[in-house]
Structures are given as C-alpha cells and as structure tokens.
Amino acid sequence: MDDLIADFVTETLDSIDLLDAEIVRLERDPTHAQAIEHVFRVVHTIKGTCGFLNLRRLERLAGAVEHLISPIRDGAPAGAQTVAGIFEALDRIRSVARGVGTMGVEPEGSDQDLLAITASDDSSSAQASGRSHTGDGFTSGTLVYQVLERPLRDGEASLDNLERAFQAAPGPEAVQELRTPNGTIEPVPAAAKARVRVAVDRLDHLMDMVSELVLVRNQLHELSRKDDSGLYKLPFQRLSHITGELQDGVMRTRMQPISMAWSGLPRIVRDLALGLGKQITLETQGDDTEIDRQLLEIIKDSLVHLVRNAADHGIEPPVERIAADKASTGLIRLSAGREGGQIVVRISDDGRGLDLERLRSHAVERGLLSDAEARLLTEGDSAKLIFRPGFSTASSVTDLSGRGVGLDAVRASVESAGGTIDLVNRPGFGLSVVVKLPLTLAIANVLIVEAGGQRYALPQLAVTELVRVSAEGDVRVENIGSLQMFRLRGGLLPLIRLDRLFGGPETTTGASVIAVCQSGHAHFGLALDAILQTEEIVVKPLPVKLRPISYFSGTTILGDGAVVLILEPMGFARTVDGTNKAFEHVRQPEAGETPPSAATRILVFRDWDGQEKAVPLAQITRLEEISPDAVEKAGDCDVVQYRNRTMHLVNLGGSKALPDGSGPLSVIVFSHGRQTVGLVVCEIVDVFEERLDLDLAHPGPGSLGTAVVDGRVMQVVDVSALIGPDMQGGMVEPSDTPARLILLEPSPFFQALLEPLLRARGYEVAISETVEAAQAVAARGGFAAAIVDLDTGPATSAAACAALRSDLAAPALVVGLATRAVAGSRLPDAAGGGCIVGKFDRRRLLDVLAESLPAMAHAA
Amino acid sequence: MTPTAPLSPHEPAIAAADLVQFVTVRLGGQLIGVPIDHVRDVFQIAALTPVPLAPQGVAGLANLRGRIILLVDLAAELGLVSQPAKGARLAVGIEWRGETLGLLVDAVGDVVSASPDLGAPVSALVQDNWSRCARRIFNFERDVMIELDLNALLDSPLTKAA
Question: Chain B partners of A562 at a C-beta cutoff of 8 Å?
C-alpha cells in the first residue's frame, strides 16, 4: 500500500479516537470553544487529505461531520440528534478508514443514510442559527461547502479554492507542494509539533543496541575496577554517564502517554450510560503519564474492561443513588501517575462497591469454593474472588459488559506485564481498582539468586519478603510426604525447592533463604541457596523452543557476561495451585480427566497413644500449628480463635483435656458445613499415596476401621464423627422387601465406606465400578435407586446417571455422590434431577434414601 | 557436473549449474553438511548456561556478543557421540525463523559446493535419528557427507527429556 495512505489511515484513526472524547465534552458543554475548534480542525484535515488521496467516500463523510459541527461552531446548541449524527459519522469514518488500511482502497458501501441526516439537520440548524454559511466560490459536485469564520487575510486563499487545488493536484508529489509553507494553509496545530513517525521495529532495534551497550559498559566496569592506574577512570565515568542517558532517551522514545489507552473511554462511558439509563461522569487525571508502548498494548483492553465494569456494575441507576443519598450522577475517576519505579493506575467509582457476602455465596454456587472455605475468607480475599476464573457477578450478561472476558483475564494480562492488581472496596461507597505496572518491560529489577549451583533472576515485584531458614528460628521447613511446607507467622505455605524442581544437583545447604512470592492468589516460597545481589537487568525474550517451560519468562546477560534465566512467578504459582488443591480439598477433576481411582492420598499422624493413624487428605481443610497460649476454655471444651471464628479442639483419646506440652500444637483442621474442628495430634508423620482398603471389621470410637498404609496397619479416623453428632444408632427396622440399590463407585475406599452403612440400613447393595457394569446390573431389574459417583467428571457422570436411570425400574431415584457437593445442588433433569450428596455426608445420603424410597415404594 | 534427472518428482527441477554450498562440520566422526544460506557464523562457546527442564536436544544458552542464543545438542538429536576437541566448544550459528541458534559440533571444515543432483535420497540407509534430520547423502571421493535438513531438525519439537 502507498505509504502516504498508510500514514493517513493511522493518523486518521488516532485523531478520531481523540475526537470521541472532545465530542462527549461538547455534548456536556456546547459552548466549549476549544472542543469545537479541535473537532472542526481535525475533520477538516481529514477531508482535505482525502481530497488529494482521492478517497471520495471518506471525504464525503468528513464533509458531513464538518457540516454538522458548523452550526455548533456558530453558536447553535449541540442537540442530542446532532451529536448522535456526529458520532455515527465518525464511526463510519473509522470503519471506512480501517477498510482503506487493510485493502488499500475504500470499501464499497453507501453512506446515504448518514448524508441524509446531515442534510435534514442542516436545514433545521441553519434556521436555528439564522446565519448563512454562504462563502465565495462554491464548487459543484460532491464537495461539501465549508467555512472559515474569519475574513481572509491578505495572501490567503479561500478554503474552497484550496480544495479545488487539492482536487487538481496530480498525486503524492503535489503533497510536498501544498505543504510548502507559504503561509496560505490554515495552521493545523495537532500536526504542527515536530514529530516523526518511526516504525516500531527500528526503535526496538535501537533498544537492543543500547542494551548491549549497557552490557559492554558493565563489563568494562569489571575491568576498570581491577585497573590500578586510574587511567581509565575518567573516560569510563563519562561512558557510563552517556550510556545511562542514552538508555533513558531510547526508553523514552518507546513511551507513550497513557491517555492513548483511555482516549476511547469517554465515548464508551457515554454509550454505556445511555444504554443503562445511568448518569456517569468520567474524570481522568495524569493523562500525560508516560508508559512503555509494549505495556500500553498489553493493558489497554484491561483498562477498558475495568471502566466498563465500573459503569455497568459499580455505578447505580439514578433512583438508587438518590435513595442512597448520593448525587444522581455517578463518577468514575481514572488516574495515572508514577510512584517510585512503578506506574500506578487507579480506576475508582463512587458506586455501590462489592457486596462481599454476595460474592462469597456466588462463588460457592459456582463451585469455586466450598461453604467452609468461603466462610474462612478475609474481606480482602473475598473481594478478590472477582478475579477468579469462571466468576461473574452480573446475573445477566448485559449488552455492554460481561462479554465473556472475565476479570480473571484482566488480572492475567496485568500480571503478564509484570504488574499487580488490587482492590480497595468501600461497600456502599464505591470500589477502587489499583493497577501497578513496571515502567517498562525491557528493564526489570530482579534479585540474582542461586539454587542448585546455578544463578537465576527473580523479579522483585513478585517477592513479598525474604526469610532466613534456621533450626531455632520462626521459619521451619516441614516435610509432609512429597509436599514441603514452611511455617510463616502461623500459616503454612507451600515451598518449592528450585534445585529439586529443576532436577539439578541437590545442594547440601538445601534451603538457607526462602523468597516468599505472591502471584495471583497463590502464596508460596521458593527455597534458594543464596541471594547474591539486586540488579537492573535488560530483559531478552526466551528462545522459542524454551517457551513451553512455564517457569521462565525470559533471559538476560549479567555484568560478567553470563546468561541467566528469569524466573516466572506465575509458572510456580500454577504448580503450587496444584499442590494447594491436593492439600486443601480435592476439586472436581477436569472433564475428560479420570482421577487415579485406586490411589488415595492419605495423611498419617501419630496420636497421643503413640499409634499412627490415617485420614484421607481430601477430608482435611488445613494443617496448622497453634500455640498452647492461644487455647481458651469454653465450658469444658478447648477452643481457639481461628480466622475470626471459634474452633473446637479435640483429640482422639476421648478426653476433652489437651495433652500437656510446652511446644506448639499440631492441629489438623476439618471443616464441614458451618463447623470447624481442630484435631490435636502428637505429630504429623507423612503423606502417602496408595490404595486405601478399608477393613470395617474393627471400628473403634472415632474410627472407621483399619487400613494398611505404607505397610503398617493403622486406624482410619472417622471425620464425620469428629465433626457432626454421633452417627451411631438410629437403625431402621429392615422392611419386608428390602429396597435394592446400585452403587456405582470406582474407588474401593468409598465402596468400603458406604456399602456396610447401606446394608446396616436394610438396603440390598450391588456394587459396580463402571457405567457399563452398572447398566448390566440394572438390566436385571428390581433396583429402586442408583448412587452414582460424580467425581469422574461432570460430563461423563451426568451421562452415566441418565443412562442408568433408563435401565432402572421406574420411577427410579438417582443420587449423585461428589467429594465436594454444594448444598442443594441437583443432577440435571435428564438424569432425574436427584440430589447430589457429599461423599462424606453419610447422614444426608441416608436421609435422602429414606425420604425418597418409601414414597417410591408406594408409587410403584 | 553430470546432469541427471531431478532428485524426486516432488522437488522442482534444478538446473545443473546450480551448485549448493554447504558448511561442513564434524560430529562424532561423521561429516555433516549445513546449507550455507542458513549459516551466520561459527563461534566458540565460552560459557554455557544449562536450562532446567528443557528438551533433551537443548544444550543451553550462550552469550554471543550480547545476543542470547539457544544451543542445540546436535549429537543428542542425531544419536551421535560427540568427540569434542580440547578447549572451548564450537558452534555453528544458524539463522532460524528470525532467531539465531547454535548447533554444537566437534569441528568445522571447509565450505563445499555440490550439485544437488549428486545427492542420493536418504531411504533406509541410515539410522532412525538420521532419517528424520538428513535430507540427502553425498558420496564424495573420500567421505560421505550427510546434508542436514534444518526444517526437519528444528521444526519438530526437540527430543523430549526422558
């Protein structure tokens, strides 16, 4: 494509974005002379340029806008219709210009609709303003007339004459001619500042060169330190200084004002407000804050999304606002500024803020959290739920926001740019989103760390603190089977040993320092051998072949010429997320993924009687260490305050009193429903992953039975007995014709757990491990209900339920079993709409069966 | 030059006068030809940064005059046993899809010109690793040179670590 046209298209698109903002301003204040002038000038420039680039369609459109704006310029009020017309025409110009940009020629299409509006508007506004626009030298044809509302000065040509000259000009050379400064052309202030358009890759290349210069400088610095003569000292200092300046300068050329990212926002907010029937003012502050071009591109959409969100979900409708004693017009304030070495962007609204209770219940409904987890969340963590994938508070998807790009995508893009995102929530008074970004992606502040005999660069932004590991200090590393955790101020955080993860030589020191990192909602520690220094590094991209490794984000060269890899905290966070899940609760497996049905993760601990006992990891909420001083008495129970709630402490010995001991207590925390119970144990031994074959023959108090774990026989703790009231007793009289059930459950553990329970209640139970087997059993007939394991994946299980149901004797009951059932959830209608019951919630399962089956027996 | 029929029906006919130039390298005693169009330079590797968890074919990263380049362990990819000379290791820098990569080799020899027609198809003459990355085999008077197929070597994912 013609360079000239390409330039024109970029310029036009840029200036139209700016115009949107101006016209919104104009709509509020029709007498805003500056805005009117600006719009007029830009449109006029576009029109003129189109003339000699022979872009007739654009020219006509620009003319139409000019036509609409003229009366306003002459003092007529900017009516809603006129403004709407201008917006529509600008949008059309934008789309046509984009078409020119991609195809090189104007796309086909008619603009009669728009031109008609112009014409009708013209007659009315001309009457309203009562002024004639007739100038001298009207041209015929497609030209739209234009005005210069001051008398022509000596030596100036009228606009129409200029226009004619444009038309007559043969081609690109003519541009030079016309641009010759002979004082005859209306000054165009926007373009008047000396600016050069430079291709971005040239700037990037320049940046690369400067980075290399910096490296050479660093190398020289090493050399000059060894040199005693002092001969090089002065020149080196000068070189150093110049390099610094150059680096700064080149970086600056890649900077753009942040307003580039939000120039489109006034228009978006205006359209949103109109569409939603709200009144919203958008204020911006710090428009000229400069930010790296690359970063700008990355976060542009996120800013738009956040502002949309504020307008759509934050700001209330006027009625609601007045009822809440607020001004009817809502305010969204966008501010940017440099704070330290970072750019801080705040998007604040004075709307309703986040309703944390609703967020929590919504997250539970969506299956993102269990009830218990939700109740344990702090306020800050609750607010951050909106950044979880699959979370959207809008009950209905509106036209304007909620288009599938969730706030989790916003967070991901901010974090991919090395930034952080935070929320300041004032319920009822508004929400502020604080986005912190590095100044540039090309340079990063890192810690140079050592692990497994190799150096790495760890971005400082992700590091929240550094702690030293010592045997007697506060920070201790604990091995829980394959998981390593460390205690930091009472909490347990997962620990990643870089040397182990990277498969390098395990260094004897193990971990002497832990860098505590945060990425997303994951907190974790990186175990390091040493922290060498902090350094400002030039980030180089990772070679393509290495990009699949999620633990690295780039590479860099240090002062001594060595190449080091830059660690990517997000990659570690994902790893940790995995262990967190395993540790806190087993979540629903992804569709299509079959969990290792036979193997169960089992935590083994030593009880006060010296015996080792086991409990499935899936049932454990957390492991904690609690100081004996924190234990209080409530009646004859021991309680502690735990995450703003009271947690009962129990032990398996049956005695309510806590064992004596001076050290901190190891506590296994179980949560179910509204209850949280801490089991005080002597010592956490290990986590094993193996088949749990439960022998129910010898249940003891608080024990389900025995199982062989790691070659030893041990009791398996009955968690439901700890949490809920006793499950014993309440045996029903076996009925004359026992109801027959199918239990579809691949895990031997749960088979062993449920079968005796069901039999004890007088049901006849047939166990199947696969859907096919269950169907075959069902085909024999006479089964009243099926209890189906849902953990194999929601999709397959729902299908299994539906298939089974058709094979059962009607009317059949199908009950779903899930490790993490949300209260009140039900199977899809196709599968019978039966209850979904938690796997460990045996009482509920029995209740459901008892309620439904007699009724069915009558119906049958 | 003996004009013969084009190598295979899938390849366009090449005029006999069109010689192809190769930078020859030695690796584990084998003579290998790297198409010269792709070769940027040959350099010594002062220090190599290993990349944890990288595919097996990745030897590591090196600093080549301020540029960071990925070094490919060609011997591992081809199933050869490298016999490096003493001193710093050598690498052939190649331009690949806008990136510079280094192929680790034992020694670098002359640039040779050959008519592509002289090359014989690889067929089953060579081992598995070779048949993936070898394009043609040239039978010179004293030696057999295998032409490296950079597309095949680099486009497919490098051998995964065991």
Answer: 47, 49, 63
Amino acid at A48: G
CA distance A258 to A302: 13
Residue A118, classed as helix, strand or coil, is helix
How close is the nearest chain B Cα to the Cα of A441, in Å? 17
Cβ atoms of A820 and A618 closer than 8 Å: no
The whole-angstrom separation of Cα A633 and Cα A650 is: 12
Residue A346 pLDDT grade (very low, low, confident, very high; cuts 50, 70, 90): very high
Contact status, residue A314 vs residue A430, Cβ threshold 8 Å: yes
Q: Is residue A652 within 8 Å of residue A613, measured between CB atoms?
A: yes
Q: Which residues contact A637 (CB under 8 A, 6 or more apart)?
A: A648, A649, A656
A540 to chain B: which residues are within 8 Å by CB?
68
CB contact, 8 Å: B99 with chain A?
A: yes
Distance CA A579, CA A738 (A): 44
Q: How much is the pLDDT for A152?
A: 62
Does the pLDDT of residue A205 top 80, yes or no? yes
Contact B54 A557 (CB under 8 A): no
Distance from CA of A214 to the nearest CA of B (A): 10
Tokens for A8, please give them: 């024109």
Distance from CA of B62 to the nearest CA of A (A): 6
Task: Tell me the percentage of chain A whose pLDDT exceeds 70.
Answer: 72
Q: Do the bridges between strand B107-114 and strand B20-27 make them parallel or antiparallel, or are there none, so unpaired? A: antiparallel
pLDDT in tens, A617-658: 767 777 777 887 888 877 777 888 876 677 888 877 655 456
pLDDT band at A180 (very low <50, low <70, confident <90, very high): very low
Strand partners, A603: A615, A687
**Residue pair A349/A330 in contact by the 8 Å Cβ criterion:** yes
Chain B contact probe: residue of A208, A215, A545 with most B CBs at under 10 A? A545
H helical segments located in A384-423: 407-416
Residue B128 φ/ψ, nearest 5 degrees? -55, -50
B128, burial (CB in 10 Å: exposed 0-12, middle 13-18, buried 19+): exposed
Where residue A69 falls (left for φ over 0; alpha for ψ -120 to 50; beta otherwise) is alpha
CA dihedral over A728, A729, A730, A731, signed as positive or negative:
positive
∠ CA(A32), CA(A38), CA(A41), 5° rounding? 140
Question: 0.80 exceeded by the pTM?
Answer: no
Q: Is B66 part of the contact surface with chain A (CB cutoff 8 Å)?
A: yes
- Enumerate the H helices of A449-495 as residue ranges: none
Is residue B51 less than 8 Å (CB to CB) from chain A?
yes
Any A CB within 8 A of B91 CB: no
State whether residue B41 sits within 8 Å of chain A by CB: no
Q: What is the DSSP letter of A826?
A: B
Å between B76 CA and nearest CA of chain A: 16
**Beta strands B30-35; A290-292: pairing state:** unpaired
Each residue's pLDDT tens digit, A268-278: 888 888 888 88
Question: Which of B62, B65, B99 has the CB atom closest to A563's CB atom?
Answer: B62
Q: Which residue has the tokens 């510079």?
A: B100
State the count of interchain CB pairs (< 8 A) between A and B. 64
Q: For chain B, state the CA radius of gyration.
A: 16
Rounded CA-CA distance A398/A389 in Å is: 19
Q: Closest to A545 (Cβ–Cβ): which among B49, B52, B55?
A: B55
Residues A270-305: tens digit of each pLDDT: 888 888 888 899 988 888 888 888 788 888 888 888
Give Rg (Cα) of chain A: 35
Is the per-residue pLDDT at B60 higher than 90? Answer: yes
CB contact under 8 A, A557 and B63: yes
Q: Which of residues 111-150 of B touch A (CB under 8 A)?
A: none
